[in-house]
């Protein structure tokens, strides 16, 4: 189970895809919607016809009927700067942590009807949502200790037993759960046995002297990025290592295809490069030179789908993942691109790219670069989720928007 963020604090859970905002009644702002819930908030999941999210004003968790927006139930509340973490929603329950400004302490489980199933207020969960795989809840706290709990009863199954002096780096934690639990700890990537928590292997780049910035796992191989290089790691052994063209850069994994790994390297906020690495040999190619984003506080945004790498700056570009050739480049009016995502649809060659422009506008284009939709909603967009409809969370409300292609 791999969960990577797609937009502004929103996590993808279940069959729907969390992305960003879109367009049926008119609220006076020119937007169109099917229904509106009159409390600003964020959306975490749409599952079995129910929209799960968190209100902005008091932090309470709400479940909304997907076709009408009617609130089915609400749970809890937070105060001040405290928040609930992003929710993890499964077919049988909802799981989340309780976070203060300093840390996240407390693991909660609800039934799907909002009734509390269990809680453990002593468990550190880190500033991420729990992972739930095959009836087990996995969390990692602020010092890198991973714990596993029975999702139904809340009984602790194991703790990995790492020394608490092995502090976890800021922003890291559980990377992926597949054949093992992959977790960043301090300057290392560690694979833990899913059943008992024992260490299978540990990868310490440069004997712990180099900080891992990003990591991902695909087909049993881990890929890590640092401020100067990218590496492929199998069973704890470094298979290949390739440098980027600068040191002390911010690197992030933009996506993985069957053959290639894509990495975005930001030398500064206004100058980035997109690299492709052969997953077997590590052979490197530069797909895009000197990407510039118009806003000093942002940078290029990327998404990979069906053999295409999409890059958003002041325009949307589509790059063939195999050849590096540009398929199209289109401009958008109304400001730079703040986020983009490509939800899963039927057919590998028939997908829609959603692009957030400005504070509350979303544009969609098809796989040929033709614009198909242009909508806005009231308030500043927090996140959105594409399912049968498009569900949008803003500072003013939660919306259901009809997903259709404009004629």
Automatic annotation (TrEMBL):
It comes from the Archaea. This is Outer membrane protein assembly factor BamB, contains PQQ-like beta-propeller repeat. InterPro entries: PQQ_b-propeller_rpt, PQQ_rpt_dom, Quinoprotein_ADH-like_sf, WD40/YVTN_repeat-like_dom_sf. The lineage of its organism: Archaea, Methanobacteriati, Methanobacteriota, Stenosarchaea group, Halobacteria. Residues 107-203 form the Pyrrolo-quinoline quinone repeat domain. SMART domains: PQQ (SM00564). Pfam families: PQQ_2 (PF13360).
